[in-house]
Amino acid sequence: MRSSVATPLDVKLMNTTAAVLFMAFAGLAIVATARWVSRLPAFDLQGISVSGDMNHNNPLTLRANVAHSLAGTFFTVDLARVRSAFESVPWVRRAVVHREFPNRLHVRVQEHQAVAYWGADAESRLINSHGEVFEANVGEVDQENLPRLSGPEGQSAEVLAVYRALAPQFAKMELPLEQLELTGRGSWRARLDTGASLELGRGTAADVDARVQRFLKTLTQVTSRYARPLLAVESADLRHENGYAIKLRGVSTLVADAPKK
């Protein structure tokens, strides 16, 4: 029988070191080759295609605005930077960027859909269909007569949700809801396109909705009693527990002074 001879420890260490060094050099060679390939002229970016529903931008102007962000090749271009550049363009809400082998990029753009103005009349901020506030040239708004909403920063989505709940109710009475405000103290105020101002009180959206339903359900009866049209409503206070206070144009609750003798 042959007796096995144990490999000396120093030989084992040398073999292990050689293997490690070989793997390290192989890895470095692969990385260097990959870097060299990624910088070949064949992978220089040759173009960028843009798609999506666009009403306020077009592919030509979008590409011109982001040209400075297209540094690098197909492999090295920073997609996050390209996406950020697209999303910094007015009216662009979101951009999704993909590579198209071997030397192109494709960007799908989603624009903001303005549904309301946000803040004071002098501000140029808008709210999109997701309840997000964005800045744009209000002169480029497609729709006319958008409502104006306002409230504390960060609560635009809540204000929009309440508006969407209330507006159809007023529309049925042919009294379009023109403005809705959530004050810093949590109270809701509204203004109709007739100029009537309404105090809706505090509470949840459900609380406000219930008060508005109660108000509109009896409004025709109240105005008819004084032979006035719905357009005669000047103001109303819905904060009362079991009713509301209303002021009609052309109707006075003051008693005339008795004629002097």
Structure notes:
The protein has 261 residues and is α/β, with parallel strands linked by helices. It folds into three domains: 10-39; 45-111, membrane protein fhac (Ubiquitin-like (UB roll)); 114-248, Cell division protein FtsQ/DivIB (Rossmann fold), CATH 3.40.50. The protein has helices at residues 9-38, 59-66, 79-87, 156-172, 205-225; strands at residues 47-51, 92-100, 104-111, 114-118, 125-128, 133-135, 148-150, 177-182, 187-192, 197-202, 233-237, 245-248. The strands form two sheets. Strands 6-5-4-7-8-9-10-11-12 form a nine-stranded mixed beta sheet, with helices on one face. A three-stranded mixed beta sheet has the order 1-3-2, covered by helices on one side. A hairpin with a 4-residue loop joins strand 9 and strand 10. Helix 4 runs parallel beside helix 5 (205-225). The relative contact order is 0.07. Mean pLDDT is 86; it is low at 254-258.
Concise summary:
This protein has five helices and twelve strands. It has helices at 9-38, 59-66, 79-87, 156-172, 205-225, and strands spanning 47-51, 92-100, 104-111, 114-118, 125-128, 133-135, 148-150, 177-182, 187-192, 197-202, 233-237, 245-248.
- Fraction in helix: 25-40%
Order of helices and strands: HEHHEEEEEEHEEEHEE
Domain unit count: 3
Write down the overall geometry. elongated
Which sheet architecture does the biggest sheet show? Answer: 9 strands, mixed
Distance between the termini: 148 Å
Q: At the fourth CATH level, what is the homologous superfamily of the largest domain? A: Cell division protein FtsQ/DivIB
In CATH terms, what is the architecture of the largest domain?
3-Layer(aba) Sandwich
In DSSP terms (H or I, runs of 4 or more residues), the helix count works out at 5
Largest sheet, order of strands side by side?
Answer: 6-5-4-7-8-9-10-11-12
Strand tally, please?
Answer: 12
Radius of gyration: 34 Å
